[in-house]
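Title: Prediction job returns without error message
Component: structure pipeline
Severity: low
Priority: P3
Assignee: unassigned

Description:
Job completed but the reporter wants confirmation the result is attached to the right record. Sequence as submitted:
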Amino acid sequence: MWNKYVLLLMAVLLVWGCGSKKKATRIQGGQGEVYMNGADAYLINNLDFRTFSGKAKAKVEFDNEKQDVTLHIRILRDREIWISVTATLINFEVARVRITPDSIQILNKMRSEYIGKRFDYIHLYTGTGVSFFTLQDLFMANVSQSLLRTDRVTVASAVDEVQLVGVRDDLSFQYSLNEKNRPKVFRLNAVGGSDYLESFYSNFVILGGYNFPQNQQIRIGAGEMNISAILNYSKADFNQDIEMPFAVPGKYKVIE
């Protein structure tokens, strides 16, 4: 069962990516980054960090099966994402995951098994466009800059909200930014299809000078598969020295 839930958690925390067709122009701004797209200008306020270390309780539901887990997440920016998964009920670490731009490694501690694959192994569960950097953006509640590199973006502004709606290749996307230019809603849909991803961010607080959401809800629908996950962070630290221990015990079975 835990093999499925480890892969499920990874699928829940991913977003479909796109190609690299650069159209938008980025200008440094005082409170974030200003993007010019034709006559439209809009501000995003992505987090600029060196390291991240967080702890979150997660309620995961997959096809009427539910699990409560605790996630310890550490990120060395642009280099490595490290995740420890603990089963809340038994207070036992059931899995450890290490992701780099080129590879993914999973320790299934319940079954003493190890999986080591190229990064594109993730595409079996998410689609071929996903990159390490897109995953990093989703964890940090950052706007995916690759999605913005298109000339098919519409910007709508209100007093306390900005809507970014666009199409990139075969994906349509929507961001709702709050008054601090941080995303509070993100929706992604396959053009002409029913597959979707939705992410809702809330309870933003200032932690070490960073505006970070303590709550995140993610919903994914792909074919007949429906996944829901609610993450509640109790800890989030930035730019501290972190350790990412990952060693494969000799007794573990290697899964091809």
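Comment from assignee: result matches the submitted record. The radius of gyration is 18 Å.
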